[in-house]
Amino acid sequence: MALQPVTRRSVPDEVFDQVLSEVVDGELEAGEALPSERRLAEVLGVSRPAVREALQRMTQTRLLEVRHGGATTVRDFRRFAGLDLLPRLLVRKGVLDAAVARSILEARLVIGPGVAALAAERGGPALHAALTDSVDALAATDDDVARQVHALAYWDLVVDAADSLAFRLMFNSLRAAYEPAIEALAAVMAEEVGQVGAYRVLTAAIGEGDPETARVAADRVLRPATTSLLTALTAIKETS
Amino acid sequence: MALQPVTRRSVPDEVFDQVLSEVVDGELEAGEALPSERRLAEVLGVSRPAVREALQRMTQTRLLEVRHGGATTVRDFRRFAGLDLLPRLLVRKGVLDAAVARSILEARLVIGPGVAALAAERGGPALHAALTDSVDALAATDDDVARQVHALAYWDLVVDAADSLAFRLMFNSLRAAYEPAIEALAAVMAEEVGQVGAYRVLTAAIGEGDPETARVAADRVLRPATTSLLTALTAIKETS
DNA sequence: GTCCAGCAGGTGGTCAGACCACTTGACCAC
DNA sequence: GTGGTCAAGTGGTCTGACCACCTGCTGGAC
Questions:
Q1: Of residues B71, B88, B72, B75, the one with CA closest to residue B21
Q2: In terms of CB atoms within 10 Å, which end of chain B has fewer, N or C?
Q3: For B141, left (φ over 0), alpha (ψ -120 to 50), or beta?
Q4: Residue B147: what are its φ and ψ, rounded to 5°?
Q5: Distance, angstroms, CA B208 to C1' D15?
């Protein structure tokens, strides 16, 4: 039997999720005022500290604005939310948002080659060796999930070599969105992570320290799956 | 006289900042255990809920890991922090981190053209009109801060037109890092936001719906300031 | 001596109730 | 109208308590 870790959802977690859903799913419009903490606590059947903690987390995510003595209002998440909200917006009301998925694929296709170019510029022989090991590990497995894990580790090395904190943090945010769904994505990503040849070409380009070649090679790694997934997403959208 | 809104720092805010600094500035290594909530509350002279709220926010930012009944440990922020932590990492221990600034400039130079290309693909006549208005507003002012505000509004339109939630959220995160420092950056960004001509070329390219031309035009808008700032940053680093 | 069940202590999770600080809006005097 | 006052409601903070959970120690069984 397939056991899995029990997920203990704390009370504030639960409240946070509910309020977040209200905001993200549009039940609460931007500018609208939330009920008071006391009232929310009463309605949800929890204590005020629990509500408070959830609202503070919403504030930290720039989704709410609290004013001491005044009302707590909803902010426009499209305008203020940070990249960390991406996973929550990818799946809204239980269904995958095709437009959001498309945007992630497009972003990947822009950023991946840019990072690869920087890595080529800055990486040394040690990087080339590490990348080669990583591709070898990728090539050595047949399991689609394991391949994705290896591909992720590969890109992790590339991002490290790019020596760019901005890209590193973007990568972290995107990975945080990607990892929980890795099993669900095994089938659709199989095409990409199976292209060991393309990864080897990219590795060679980075190893040679040639940014432009690396840029092109990274594009060749990412584009095929991007294109076919975008086609699939368009098909889904038109069916629905 | 230059009045400005009074900033009221709440107790949990203060605690959050202190703990964040400890983590980000390396006083607390990754894997290290934090003192217990009760102990922290005692040491900091605040109540436990205040400490608790701060720690929860740290957890939300993926900088801490709390285990019910066990200790709270520090996570590796380089590996787990999201893009929203960027502003806090840009200025560490009170000084601007040149490497982080460089990474932001590089990221901008990769993402800007990508977004411009998407906007060209998807924007219509309405977008062209809005962008033209925005550039006109940019051209009509002499104040460096006001110009930056207009440039920000311009890019906001471009990101909107790109119709990409992933890029929109990145832009939001980067803007949240940029806006508070906008006055301090007035001088160094003056070169870029003064290039009205380059913005007009970009606007025309987007208006024509030609992604590749737009990509190049966006590069021409962003690259000059990027290059000169990178040179300046290198000089700073070598002096220190 | 070795092993392990059981317990005690410490930790985070949650709650209730209280009081303070602040904003808002109604009301009133001018 | 203008400005002051006040009450009501809101968020901000604290105290103290209890529950759920993990860890390490301890003492008995072997």
A1: B88
A2: N
A3: beta
A4: -60, -40
A5: 66
- Check whether A175 has a pLDDT greater than 80: yes
Chain A residues whose beta carbon lies within 8 Å of the beta carbon of residue B88 = none
Q: What is the pLDDT of residue A79?
A: 94
Integer-rounded Cα radius of gyration of chain A:
21
Give start and end residues of each alpha helix (H) in chain A: 11-24, 37-44, 48-60, 77-80, 86-90, 98-122, 125-139, 144-162, 165-178, 186-193, 196-207, 211-239
pLDDT one-digit tens code per residue, B147-159: 999 999 999 999 9
A12 contacts B165? CB cut-off 8 A = no
Q: Which of B59, B10, B149, B240 is nearest to A69 (CA)?
A: B10
Nucleotides of C under 7 A from a protein CB: 10-18, 21-24
Output the distance from B28 CA to C4 C1' rounded to whole Å. 37
How confident is the model over A116-131, as pLDDT tens digits? 999 999 988 889 999 9
Q: Measure the CA–CA gap between B116 and B160, rounded to whole angstroms.
A: 10
Average model confidence (pLDDT) across chain B: 90
Quick check: helix, strand or coil at residue A3?
coil
d(CA B119, CA B157): 9
Strand C contact at CB of residue B8, distance < 7 A:
yes
Residue A2 has pLDDT above 80, yes or no: no
Contact B217, B116 (CB under 8 A): yes
Residues 6+ apart with CB under 8 A from B93: B25
* The pLDDT value given to residue B4: 67
* CA pair distance B180, A170, nearest whole angstrom: 20
- Chain A residue with CA closest to B53: the answer is A53
Amino acid A182: pLDDT: 87
Return d(Cα A113, Cα A158) in angstroms, integer. Answer: 10
Q: For residue B82, give the nearest of A79, A84, A106 by CB distance.
A: A84
| CA separation for the pair A78, A75 (Å, rounded) | 9
Contact A158, A131 (CB under 8 A): yes
More confident residue, A232 or A1: A232
Nearest Cα to Cα of residue B112 among B6, B185, B232, B214: B214
Spell out which residues of A between 59 and 98 contact strand D, using CB within 7 Å.
66-72
Confidence of residue B10 (pLDDT cuts 50, 70, 90): confident
Which candidate, B22, B37, B36, B14, places its Cα nearest to that of B77? B22
> How far is Cα A144 from Cα A187, in angstroms, rounded to an integer?
7
pLDDT at B77 over 90: yes
Q: Which pLDDT belongs to residue B183?
A: 85
Helix axes B37-44, B48-60, angle to 10 degrees: 120
